[in-house]
Amino acid sequence: MGEEINITEDEAALYDRQIRLWGLDAQRRLRAARVLLIGLRGLGAEISKNIVLAGIKSITLLDCTESTEEDGCSQFLISRNDVGKNRAEASLEHAQRLNPMVEVMSDTQSADEKSDEFFTKYDVVCATCCKQSTLLRINKVCSDHKVKFFGGDVYGFYGYMFADLGEHEFAEEVPKPKQKEEGGEPDTKKAKKEEIEMVTVKRSVTFSRLHSALEIDWSSQAALRKLKRTPNAYFIMQVLLDFISNNNRYPDSKQKEADIKLLIEQKTKTLEKLKLSPSVVSDDFASFCFAELSPVCAIVGGVIGQEIIKAVSLKDQPHNNFFFYNGVEGSGLVDNISSP
Description:
- Helices cover 39% and strands 20% of the residues.
- Strand 2 (58-62), helix 5 (87-98) and strand 3 (103-107) form a beta-alpha-beta unit.
- By secondary structure, it is α/β, with parallel strands linked by helices.
């Protein structure tokens, strides 16, 4: 990651509350971070808002697609007058207005057209709206070159985040009992005077790659023991990734009934591939996978933005390695899923 840089007086005034929250050194690391954000649908807009306001050095918005009328429901960086324009270019002006101190750039190429070297120029790569093959390729490049990688998407009521930070070190504040020394008093009175102080400790955590999190042999006894504790949204994510790969598109609300049937068929194929019974996921899920819902984008985008800030600032324990949101149940879960 880029070297820490000095904070100017103007920046110190702008980021005053953040500096009080996570410290000057963490803010310096943020001000040195170069981020690539792939995909500027509703989720991408939420992520860009959160990290631009936090005060990174620069962000490149990469998207080769055109904005649609549906974007008006979840993509707040794009005006309704910009329908038909490239999503990255249409988002640029409003993203820049969020924080003039951050350098905001747009790129209209496809992520699949980019060379491996392109992704190594950044400290963080966050890939949304990508096919599974694209996610796997970019994650491998980032992992090989020690670039922090995040992936995520929103499918109707469902959303997820995946993180691969490699060998990640971070600082965390933990409580430590502080005993007041007052001679001559009974032990029972001393115990009542016990205070708690916060001390900073350094810790490390190891992340796995995306392919390891997707290619699990669920027929093994170890995996079956974890099956009941694995969020249902993990398998729904797998179904949606396969659906997008096979159909080269997201489920379309304009042909909802037909796509519900396709989603149920895809569920059976995906779970059979994972060596699981189709009953692991109810057919009801297929009715809730359409469009990007702005509340779901806000929740998942908030979590991804938070995790990028934690990863760059080296402050606090990151989520390792999945976050799943299930809007049908109103639940959000963090889980570490990977093959041995």
